[in-house]
Amino acid sequence: MPPRRVSVPESAIVLAAGRGKRMGALTDARPKPLITVEGRALIDHVLDHLATAGVKRVVVNLHYMGDAIAAHLVRRRDIAVEFSREDQALETGGGIAKALPLLGDVFFALNADIFWLGGAMSALHQLAAGFDPARDDALLLMQPTARAAGYDGPGDFMLDPAGIVRRRLETEVAPFVFAGIEIVHHRLFDGAPTGAFSINRLWDAAIERGRLRGLVHDGEWYHVGTPESLALAEARLHTHRVER
Q1: From start to end of the chain, where are the E strands?
Q2: Which pLDDT band, with edges at 50, 70 and 90, does 121 fall under?
Q3: CATH of the domain at 106
């Protein structure tokens, strides 16, 4: 439970349309959001967090093996689930843009294939508490690369003391990676293109306006983008269970 009461958005979108190609044969027969960690599908872990945080309604966008994801989620009773089906994959920006009529003025947006554990305050409550709709078009959850289990990339972003985001330069190594969780004001999508596009395009515009900020996650976060990182996550979580 959070240490104080925080008002959270009523709606969220979970991005579940991708193929998950880096998972190789694991996603030949099932979509990546249905791959299991600790015996539960990745997307169920995400919806568990949303329901616990107090989110009432989630939109899940679907493309690759979308029927399998929809069939899996109809059993949920703790949170209302709607679907935004895509005839062609619209990427992160296009997928959210298509679903905007189903979302509120402010909403969470999460990748369906992430796994995290809370810190002193749940990640979703942390974002809700830190988001200022008058100041921010979006607030991104950032994971320190030094504590990102299974991640060995150069990072994504720099943060100044006020949380203002700057992308790393090509020659830089950044201390933070985007954790796949953000809180968004719908105006981020004002003037957005139609069709498929990456949300990075909108983030870059918000960076230029000084309206994209980041907030550092103080809990655990597991990169599960490949079979190897999935195995590492399972091994570390098993070790945690044994130690407890």
Answers
A1: 11-15, 36-37, 40-41, 57-62, 80-85, 106-111, 115-117, 138-144, 148-149, 157-159, 165-167, 176-185, 212-216, 220-222
A2: confident
A3: 3.90.550.10
